[in-house]
Amino acid sequence: MSDALLVPIEHQFDDAVQQREAATMGMWLFIATEILFFGGMFLGYTAYRHAYPVPFAEASRHTLIAFGATNTAVLLISSTVMAFAVRVASQNRRRLLGLLLFVTASLGILFLVIKGLEYAHEIHEGLLPGRAFHIDAADPQHAELFFYIYWLMTGVHALHVTIGVVLITFFAFRAWFRDAFRNHDTPVELLGLYWHFVDIVWVFLFPLIYMIDRHS
Amino acid sequence: MNAPSARTYFFTGIALIAFLALTVAAAYIDLGPLNTAVAMAISLAKGALIVLFFMHIRYSKPILWVFVGAGFFWLGIMLVLAMSDYMSRGWN
């Protein structure tokens, strides 16, 4: 029996190739809605930074760039591991696939732990907007606006990372114990697209949050 | 789809980390208003590497280029039109 016969083809598709392309297009359509979802927040950031450039620069210097840079490296490495996972999925190497997905999920958890430590430090410093907000800046009101946007955007991003970690862990177990993606690696490919998208959002958040004005 | 080789993924990963080092280094040099432009240019380069190689768009059919392009094009419409309004009307 040839491998191709093992792929279940839904009745609306001509063949496995068309089915796979339709799934990939659907995932990109979802990612387009995610681009616009995050885009609204990026627009809010841009408009307020344009209106209050000095308080934003001052507030940005209160963020922990070492944590931010480390987390960027963690996500970039996890994306690279995920790319290899998608590759081995197409080669039907289930143990290696399970292992690489597990490494990807672990790096996602490391990202969340580092982000959590950073949040804890910021709450301790009084940088969480609200009644207890406190910052040593010339215009604390608009510095607080920066931190409002900071918590919103990094929080929504962290939620996406959390969803990714849960899905990737689930996929890792399914690959390792059930060999669930043999000749059916499209789900792994789509999961990879989601994870890479979450990585791209962070690639843009990182300079906008941590590095508005570091040289003065 | 011609899947990219393991070598391609490896070097894409190395390039992404190199860009990260570059963007942090550039932030500590005073380039005036160019600092943000440089940071955004590096982020665009990183994003392009991820989309083209990790997300396989480099190896995909034109229809997928349209889907990906549409997402970013509409984001561009939102940012450019909204900001042209804020920047030209004395909003403060």
Short description:
The complex is a heterodimer of chains A (216) and B (92). Chain A is mainly α.
Describe the 3D structure.
The complex is a heterodimer of chains A (216) and B (92). With 216 residues, chain A is an all-alpha fold. Chain A contains 6 helices and no strands. Chain A has helices at 16-51, 53-60, 65-90, 94-125, 140-178, 186-210. Chain A starts with 15 loop residues before the first helix and ends in a 6-residue tail after the last helix. Chain B folds into 2 domains: 1-60; 61-92. Chain B has helices spanning 6-27, 34-54, 62-88. The relative contact order of chain B is 0.10. The chains are: A mainly alpha (216), B mainly alpha (92). At the A-B interface, α1, α3 and α6 of A face α1, α2 and α3 of B.
Based on the model shown, name its key terms.
A: 216 residues, mainly alpha, Four Helix Bundle (Hemerythrin (Met), subunit A), 77% helix, 0% strand, elongated, B: 92 residues
Structural class estimated from helices and strands of chain A: mainly alpha
Give the helix level of chain A as a range of percent: over 70%
Q: Detail the poorly predicted runs of chain B.
A: none
Q: How many β-strands of chain A, per DSSP?
A: 0
Biggest pleated sheet of chain A? none
Mean pLDDT of chain B: 93
Report the helical percentage of chain B: over 70%
Rg over C-alpha atoms of chain B, rounded to the nearest angstrom: 17 Å
The whole-number mean of residue pLDDT values of chain A reads 95
CATH class group of chain A: Mainly Alpha
Q: Give unreliable regions of chain A as ranges.
A: none
Shape of chain A: elongated
Beta-sheet strand percentage of chain A? under 5%
Give the helix/strand layout.
The complex is a heterodimer of chains A (216) and B (92).
Chain A: H1 16-51, H2 53-60, H3 65-90, H4 94-125, H5 140-178, H6 186-210
Helix pairs in contact in A: 1-2, 1-5, 1-6, 2-5, 3-4, 3-6, 4-5, 5-6
Chain B: H1 6-27, H2 34-54, H3 62-88
